[in-house]
Amino acid sequence: MSLLLLIVQTLNGLQFGVLLFLIAAGLTLVFGVMDFINLAHGVQYMLGAYFAVMFYALTGSFVLALLLALGASLVFGLALEFTIFRKLYERDHLEQVIATFGIILFLNEGVKVAFGASPLSLPVPEALSGSVVLMPGLLYPVWRIVIIAAGLAVAAILYVLVGWTRVGMLVRAGASNARMVSALGVDIRRLFMLVFGFGTMLAGFAGIMIAPLLSVQPGMGDTVLILAFVVIVIGGIGSIRGAFIAALLIGLVDTLGRSFAVDILRLVMAPSPARTVGPAIASMLIYLLMALVLYVRPAGLFPAKGRG
Amino acid sequence: MSPTALQTEAAARAPAWRGRLLPFVLFGLLAVAPPLAGQGGGYVLTLLEQVMIFAIAALGLDLIVGFGGLVSFGHAAFIGLGAYAAGILAFHGLGDTALALPAAILLSASFAAATGLICLRTRGVYFIMITLAFGQMAFFTASSLAPYGGDDGLTLRMRSPVFGFDLFGNERIFYYATFVAALGIYLFCRAAIASRFGRVLRGAKENPTRMTALGYEVFRYQLAAYVISGAIGGVAGFFIANATNFVSPAYMSWQRSGELIVMLVLGGIGTLDGAVLGAAAYILLSEYLSQLTEHWAMIFGPLLVAVVMFARGGLIGAFRRIGWRA
Amino acid sequence: MSAPVLRLEALSKRYGGLVVTDNVSLDIMPGELHAIIGPNGAGKTTLINEISGLVSADGGRILFEGQDITDTPAHARAAAGLARCFQITSVLPTFSARDNVALAAQARDGSSFRFFRPAAAEEALNARALAAIEEVGLGARAHLPAGQLSHGEKRALELAIALALEPKMLLLDEPMAGTGHDETAMLSGVLRRLKGRFPILLIEHDMSVVFSLADRVSVMVYGRILASGAPEAIRTDPKVVAAYLGEEAG
């Protein structure tokens, strides 16, 4: 276990965490404000990536592809909200789960039909490809740093938006008690659409940013979706701050855990069992973390007031 | 009062043998399928075995979701654990049904007891998430069992012998064994929800504070229901391992847990008949659609959305609205 | 002198900076109907919640039939004979009125971990349930789902449920809340018949009911017991009149 590896994996963990935050932020807001479980949030992430690939093929410019894909994600998300989701806000969570599960099925197959089943890729923009020397002997990909920076920037923007603007106040109020906000005369439907659209765009943005690093394929949103839910449950439903901290925590725990689980276990057991048990425990770490958090704080770390 | 709540109450009150056509039709059809299918009907029998096995699992899930109000998103873990119990014992030459079936039940029930102690402290979406988490833990543990195939799973040379005799090798005998299990579990569930225990469970779903004020320790009853539900999942696991001669971590994936819930919603939650009907509908429909087109998910997905939006109470709900005495 | 059935010793509860129960000590004697009155927000329902165990007190003790139940969980207190009715009606809406009460009878009739016989067919439980239902005047409505009963009927059902528990003490949280004149009269009649069978702790705002039924009255204001004694003494107590009755009684 070298220091270099530790630093690299910590940075990777931060990058993963920031990505999870981008996805979880929308999810927690939608769940917090509209009390709506949106399993289809994962496919929003996937669609962001696919849109980016498609627009890049059309325009040849990453920047254009990014902007167009963001727009497409927003439009698509709003269309879903308008036609289907807004009719489900009053239903119970189970029905929301089934309906959004149906949308996952439809879209996972849909992108296969539209784009083919083989994984696609998106090149990193020229200027930002390659690696940079962080320390003697330590090369780190520029693009990953861009992702971390972008994620932190979005977090900062959200912090200002939610904490310091009127709309943000309405969102926070809605996360505590949507009916009351509506009773106070706020057009709750527009607020919901705003929240939903924004969240959708964030998920799409995450997909666009990750596309150059991962292969873009059907179903890529599924694992990420589960992780995002773990993030918002640990962070506290409806809380952006909670989502941020939980996402970074999970990104670090998961990445560092996978890298070093076997080594850490070797401290207490023989190499062979460590090598068998290690990967299994590494995969389970975040779930163990969630179980632990829920045991101690059943409403998550920072529940929006009025919920826990 | 929501249609589902009335359905559940009606389902609990009506005794199994009076004025209820649907279970007779369902189990009747299942019973006569082998002779009807004839010699070349192996494909149909295999399909119906799947239906019965998932019906068993769905019935167990309906106990806690429909009647207990506990939405578990990790139920596939119990099926997988039952399958692995059977598979691992078979791997070591100890796979006789007399050993493997009780082992499957015991393993699933124990897992349910251990995880239930933790899960049942939570409510609502937190309960959904923590059951999901435990399901994932089971999945990852199974994936890492390298000696038993890990990710790729484990193939069984033959089906579990029964007291030494290779009875299950005969497709008809295995089919009817599965049928007896499914029918038995259906009858048990019917009795259970109408029993004292079932009444407490249903009351706790509607108003846990009231039940506590009556002197019932709600936690104990919910834990018992959770363990029973897990045990039933273990039975399904034993049979699926034998039906496919294969055991794999995929049996425990969260997508499988999701499918089980879809079956319940399709058929009608909290009706027991809905669990059987939903399992049949899901499996037969996806089989039929996949013959039509490889992109059957693009039909099935919107169908689910439509069921949620327009057909509340699933198939059973629809039957009741048309006025069928189901 | 007989021992109190329920004894509260210096019970206290606070939510953050707000003191909801302020050093409350009270004895309920066998057979007495003890009313607690006071303005809204005085902490009366919280007190009942602390006694029944839904809320845990921060300080003090609760003794029931001589046993310290301060740390006993709510369900165990109910099983020990401490029955309560809720201020906001809490029944099982999809269960029939009879089955609501039968569940209470079932709780006192041995184990409920029975899986095979249909509970609705247990004649003994049904008989006890119907007896309690008749007692509160709901006989004709017993087979309707509880959710379909009128508000006053639901209040009566709450009482029937508590009776079927064969309580050693009854905690009633505003049983007449929202009931019309006839229903109030009917429920008062039931309470009058129950008087003496077991001690009853009654929270009520309806002064005519309180002063016609209660053996003793305690007045609670801001979480404290302001005064406690015979109804007439309370009615004329200057402190009480100033704090509470001044606005209500003529």
Overview of the molecule:
The complex is a heterotrimer of chains A (308), B (326) and C (250). Chain A has one domain (23-296). With 308 residues, chain A is mostly helical. Chain A is built from 10 helices and 2 strands, in the order ααααββαααααα. The termini of chain A are far apart. Chain A has helices spanning 3-34, 41-59, 62-83, 93-115, 142-164, 166-183, 188-210, 220-235, 240-266, 271-296, and strands at 131-135, 138-141. Helix content of chain A is 74%, strand content 3%. A two-stranded antiparallel ribbon of chain A has the order 1-2. Chain B has 326 residues and is mainly alpha-helical. Helix content of chain B is 72%, strand content 1%. Chain B has a two-stranded antiparallel sheet with strand order 1-2. In chain B, helix 7 (171-194) runs antiparallel to helix 10 (218-244). The longest helix of chain B is centred in the last third of the chain and has 27 residues, at 218-244. The two termini of chain B are 20 Å apart. Chain C has 2 domains: 1-81 and 167-250, P-loop containing nucleotide triphosphate hydrolases (Rossmann fold, 3-Layer(aba) Sandwich), CATH 3.40.50; 93-166, no CATH class. Chain C is built from 9 helices and 10 strands. Chain C has a 6-stranded mixed sheet with strand order 6-7-8-3-9-10, sandwiched between helices. In chain C, helix 3 crosses helix 4, helix 3 runs parallel beside helix 5 and helix 4 packs across helix 5 (151-164). Chains in contact: A-B, B-C.
Arrangement of strands in the largest sheet of chain B? 1-2
Spatial arrangement of strands, main beta sheet of chain C: 6-7-8-3-9-10
Structural class of chain C: alpha/beta
Name the CATH class of the largest domain in chain C.
Alpha Beta
**What is the CA-based Rg of chain B, rounded?**
19 Å
Number of domains of chain B: 1
Listing every helix as H and every strand as E from the N terminus to the C terminus, the arrangement of chain B reads HHHHHHEHHHHEHHHH
Most extensive chain interface and residues per partner? A-B, 44 and 43 residues
